[in-house]
Design goal:
Blueprint lengths: L3 E7 L2 E7 L10 H10 L6 H8 L6 E6 L9 E6 L5 E7 L10 H10 L8 H9 L6 E6 L4 E4 L2 E4 L10 E2 L5 E2 L7 E3 L4 E6 L2 E4 L1 E2 L5 E2 L15 E3 L5 E4 L3 E6 L2 E5 L1 E4 L9 E3 L2 E4 L8 E4 L3 E3 L7 E4 L3 E3 L3 E11 L3 E3 L2 E8 L3 E3 L1 E9 L2 E4 L5 E9 L2 E7 L7 E5 L3 H36 L6 H37 L4 E8 L4 E4 L2 E4 L4 E9 L2 E6 L1
Parallel strand pairs: 20-22, 21-23, 22-24, 23-25, 24-26, 25-27, 26-28, 27-29, 28-30, 29-31, 30-32, 31-33, 32-34, 33-34, 33-35, 34-36, 35-37
Antiparallel strand pairs: 1-2, 2-3, 4-5, 5-6, 7-13, 8-12, 9-10, 11-18, 12-17, 14-15, 16-17, 18-19, 36-39, 37-38, 39-40
Helix pairs in contact: 5-6
Length: 528
């Protein structure tokens, strides 16, 4: 225990008994001792006390003065921490002939010093059971305030987009995938607001209320195409598109707008529509779930849209450009391009292209020509000038969905290949079966081979049966396309090939103002 001191009072003398520390306790603090004497207004000889404290190893009595005084009872002084949450006491023993404090007296003394909250009864009881002096003893603890939390918004998209190329698995860098936007789908959660928590009141040992700091409250800010739930805490996208954060407000757009598609943007892959205010450069790609509009020209690029593709100033595909639309394709001109549309295709000229439409191909404008390449439409082709005086190979095909003919050709090829395989497998199986009938015992591996051969033959036959059924359906579709036509309001040049369903003709001499139809299994010219 700590070293401590005790007043000795008597007739004609006041003294002080000094007790050294034990078991590693702290030595008597001379400043504390002198402060105690000053509070009690007891005259003392500071030099005598100082000499006695030096090297104190056993109880030692020091005479303070030659005055008589009444006994002093046990006492303690209280120190309140700066945060007012702790009341620490240091007890001092009664003088000779003095009284000890009981638990109730200690509590009353605390109350007298306005220590009223968080009084530690257990600590007081423990002291009374085992008294230790000149030692810090916590007799009361306040309740610290619980600090609340400011509101917090968690965004489920990158709010600090920086253009950066994509790192490929092999370590190379793809500068055409630049990650320049946050794409979202309808129903995606964009942001969540976590409300401010106000915290809890605290109490000082004197009973005063300690309030926690103020917290900041906030709301979710958003624009059109964004919905908020009933609790006002969750933002959800109403459309497929892209999202960004501007001055704390969540914006969603279903149209992604860029000036050019080039090295500054990289390839564009978007859940909504894409609008390009200028040009799409060669080698780049646009893929959109909506429409694609290009105000300028398209070079040898690839554009794929679930909706429409509209190119204001046309496309020169450089023999590598590709257009693929679920809807229509409208372009000023198409040159050296492959284009496929689920709807109609409309343009002023087609030069050396591979064109396919599930509806119509319509050439408009003053020139309205098709020269070179292959143009295919399910219903009709409308053109002013067809073919070329330079003899460029030009093929125009109508009468069926191009995908139907492609599927038919693939199935016919597969049936032929299956028949070829059957001709190879069936004789082998027949020979093995003949051996078994003649009593030849096959080895286990030969039996397994026969079993696999039977399975393969049955599988090929089953596949062929399904293919033949589908071929019949497709042929019926081709036969039903009797209204398909090619309409030429100007001139058709010799060498141009016209295909309607499964019939074809090659124009032998120039013709004007005519219409090509299929009659009795042949392609014939009729008046326009």
């Amino acid at each position: 225990m700590n070293g401590y001191f005790q007043l000795i009072v008597g007739q004609g003398k006041t003294g002080l008994m000094l007790y050294p520390p034990t078991d590693g306790g702290e030595a008597i603090d001379s400043q504390e001792l002198l402060q105690y004497l000053a509070v009690k207004q007891i005259p003392y000889d500071a030099r005598a006390i100082g000499v006695a404290l030096v090297g104190l190893s056993e109880p030692t009595e020091v005479t303070l003065n030659l005055e008589s005084r009444f006994p002093e009872q046990e006492v303690f002084f209280v120190r309140v921490s700066p945060d007012r949450l702790t009341a620490t006491a240091r007890f001092y023993p009664p003088s000779s002939g003095g009284n000890y404090m009981d638990e109730m007296e200690i509590k009353k003394t605390l109350q007298a010093q306005k220590i009223v909250y968080g009084i530690d009864d257990a600590a007081i009881h423990a002291f009374c059971q085992h008294r230790e002096y000149c030692k810090d003893i916590i007799l009361a603890k306040g309740k610290p305030p619980v600090q609340g939390h400011d509101y917090r918004i968690e965004y489920y998209f990158n709010t600090d987009l920086k253009i950066k190329p994509t790192l490929n698995e092999d370590g190379s860098v793809d500068f055409r995938h630049l990650n320049v936007m946050n794409q979202v789908k309808k129903g995606d959660v964009l942001a969540r607001l976590f409300q401010a928590e106000p915290g809890e009141l605290g109490y000082a040992v004197q009973g005063d209320v300690i309030r926690p700091g103020e917290v900041k409250r906030g709301i979710l800010r958003f624009s059109k195409r964004v919905s908020i739930d009933e609790t006002k805490t969750i933002l959800t996208s109403e459309v497929n598109g892209h999202v960004k954060l501007v001055d704390g407000q969540v914006f969603v757009s279903d149209v992604y707008e860029v000036e050019n598609v080039d090295n500054s943007t990289g390839n564009v892959e978007y859940e909504g529509s894409v609008r390009v205010n200028q040009n799409v450069l060669s080698g780049f790609r646009i893929k959109a779930k909506g429409n694609v509009e290009v105000a300028g020209v398209v070079e040898g690029a690839s554009i794929e849209a679930d909706g429409d593709i509209i190119i204001a100033r046309g496309m020169n595909g450089m023999n590598k450009g590709v257009l693929k639309a679920g809807g229509k394709i409208i372009s000023k001109f198409l040159e050296n391009t492959t284009a496929e549309a689920g709807g109609y295709i409309e343009t002023e000229s087609i030069l050396h292209c591979n064109i396919s439409s599930k509806s119509e191909v319509i050439l408009t404008g003053r020139r309205a020509f098709i020269a070179g390449g292959h143009v295919c439409a399910a219903n009709r082709v409308i053109v002013k000038t067809l073919g070329s005086s330079m003899g460029a190979d030009t093929v125009v095909e109508v009468g069926a969905d191009p995908t139907v003919k492609a599927e038919l050709q693939q199935l016919q090829k597969q049936v032929a290949e299956n028949q070829k395989n059957l001709k190879q497998m069936e004789p082998v199986l027949a020979a093995m079966m003949q051996k078994m009938k003649s009593g030849v015992k096959l080895q286990p591996e030969q039996v397994q081979y026969v079993q696999k051969l039977v399975q393969s033959i049955n599988l090929v036959k089953e596949q062929n049966a399904g293919n033949m059924t589908r071929i019949e359906e497709l042929n019926m579709q081709l036969e039903e396309s009797t209204n398909a036509s090619v309409e030429v309001s100007g001139e058709v040049f010799p060498g141009t090939k016209i295909i309607i369903s499964d019939s074809s003709m090659t124009v032998g001499s120039g013709m004007k103002y005519c219409r090509f139809v299929r009659t009795r299994g042949e392609v014939v010219m009729a008046p326009l």
